[in-house]
Amino acid sequence: MRTAILSDLHGNLAALEVVLADLDAEQVDHIVCLGDVAVGGPHPREVMARLKALNCPVVMGNTDAWLLNPQPIRAWKGDSERITEIAFWSAAQLAPADLDYVHTFQPTVEVRLADHVGLLCFHGSPRSNTDIIVSTTPDAELECMLTGYRAQVLAGGHTHTQMLRRYKDMLIVNPGSVGHTFEFTPGLPEARIPPWTEYALVGWADDRLDVELRRVPIDVNALVRAALNSGMPHAEWWVANWG
C-alpha cells in the first residue's frame, strides 16, 4: 500500500499541478491532504476544486478552520495587514459549496498501510492544528501532543518544512508544503521560498516501510505570472521571495 501525502497547498494551483503531474508517474493507492488548502495564494477556488476532484480525505488545517469563522490574523514582522487582506480575498473567492466541502475536513485521518501498520495524519498535531512539531521539539512536549494517539507512522504538516523524526517506536513525517515551501539558511533571519514544491510518499511492501520526501522543481516565472494576473492583493509582495 502506497500513500501520497500533500500538505499546505495555500491556494497555489501551479504548485499543486506540478505535484499531481509527478504523481502520475507513480503507483499510488491513496492520497491524503493534511490541510491548509485555499487561504493565502492566488487561486483558492481552483485549488479547492482540483482537490475535491481527487476525492481524497482532507485534514482540517488552521487556515481551513479560519475560513469557517474569518477573523483578523496576527502575524510577525509587520505582515499582519497584508496577510489578512490576502486571506479575506481568498475567502471571498469561494462559493458556499466550497465552504460545505471545508466542513467535511477531519481533525485526523487514519490510513491502513498494511493489516498491522497504520498511518495517522493530522495538521499540526493530533491535539491541535496549530501545534508545531519540528526536529528539536522536546520529547516531553511531543508526549503532550500525542497522548492518546498511536500509529507506526505519524504525518503532520503546518511548518512548511520537510522532516523525518523517530519518536519512541513511531516515525513522524512532515511532507513539507505544496504551495509555500520554506527554506531556512543559517545566518539569515527569514526563510526564503525555494523554486520547488514538496510532498511525501509512504508505503509498506515486503514487510518494509518506505518513506520518500519529494522535491519537484517548479516554473517560478509561470507561477509569478499566474499570481500577478490573479487579482490577489499584494501579489507583488507574495512573489518577491520566490526563487
Provide a compact summary of the structure.
The protein is built from 8 helices and 9 strands. It has 243 residues and is α/β, with parallel strands linked by helices.
Question: How would you portray this structure in words?
Answer:
- By secondary structure, the chain is of the alpha/beta class.
- The protein has a single domain, classed as Purple Acid Phosphatase, chain A, domain 2 (4-Layer Sandwich), CATH 3.60.21.
- It contains eight helices and nine strands.
- The strands form two sheets. Strands 3-4-5-7-6 form a five-stranded mixed sheet, with no helix packed on it. Strands 2-1-8-9 form a four-stranded mixed sheet.
- Helix 6 links the parallel strand 4 and strand 5.
- The longest helix has 13 residues.
- It is globular and about 50 Å long.
- The mean pLDDT is about 95.
The separation of the N and C termini measures 35 Å
The count of DSSP E runs of length 2 or more, i.e. the number of strands, is 9
The fold-level CATH name is Purple Acid Phosphatase, chain A, domain 2
Instruction: Estimate nothing, just give the exact number of structural domains.
Output: 1
Shape: globular
Q: Given the helix and strand composition, which structural class is it?
A: alpha/beta
Q: Residue ranges: pLDDT <50 for 5 or more in a row?
A: none
Q: Order of strands side by side in the largest beta sheet?
A: 3-4-5-7-6
Radius of gyration: 17 Å
Tell me the name of the CATH homologous superfamily: Metallo-dependent phosphatases
Strand content: 15-25%
Share of helix among residues? 25-40%
- Tell me what the CATH architecture is: 4-Layer Sandwich
- Give the C-level CATH assignment: Alpha Beta
> DSSP helix count?
8
H/E series:
EHEHHHHEEHEEEEEHH
Mean pLDDT: 94
